[in-house]
What does this fold into?
Amino acid sequence: MEDIEYDELHDNPRLAKIIVSHDNPTYSSIDGVLYSKDGTKLIRFPPASKKNTFQVPDSVTSIERSAFWDCTSLTKLTIPNSVTTIGDKAFHVCSSLTKLTIPDSVTSIGEWAFAYCTSLTEITIPNSVTSIGGFAFAYCASLTEITIPNSVTSIGGGVFQGCESLTKVTIPDSVTSIDCFAFIPLPETIIAVPNSYAWNYYSHVKGIKVVAPDKE
It folds into this structure.
């Protein structure tokens, strides 16, 4: 078999292990996790796996679309510096994940990538990231603060929608575009460089305190 239907992998919450023949020309598996044949793409971590911690192998450069979809038992994940791309919905509904550091090799975060990670209280986005997809962190209800790296130039629609515990957001002066629905509800405090786009954008919004980085 050289191709696997998307639904076969992602609409089966009972999937506990994926085993691929060594002769398969397209896919490979290690400890029940599905990869591309060359090991550079992590395609699917089985949602019914008994593992609650996981180390992404150093061979992986791309965490594919919905790779960890609905892996609700996963509490700790380590992503190596080999990874450059986090696909759409890659960690969608990883509801037990509490903390995550994205390595400084990652340049893009897909749409809905961390949406509904409801236990996530802390996430580090490195300066290497230039693109954050829509709704990337939507409904991360336990996230309290976030720093946008100075490599990002725009914050799209719904990126932090439903982050009801988010009270403080740091926005660099590299950002020149913010969608009006980027933050719903709005955070209490925006930290921004005076006269930057974010400073001017939020200074006249009622209910938000806008402060300079050296005044927080």
Summary: DSSP finds two helices and 19 strands in the chain. The first helix runs from residue 6 to 10. The mean pLDDT is 93. The radius of gyration is 18 Å.
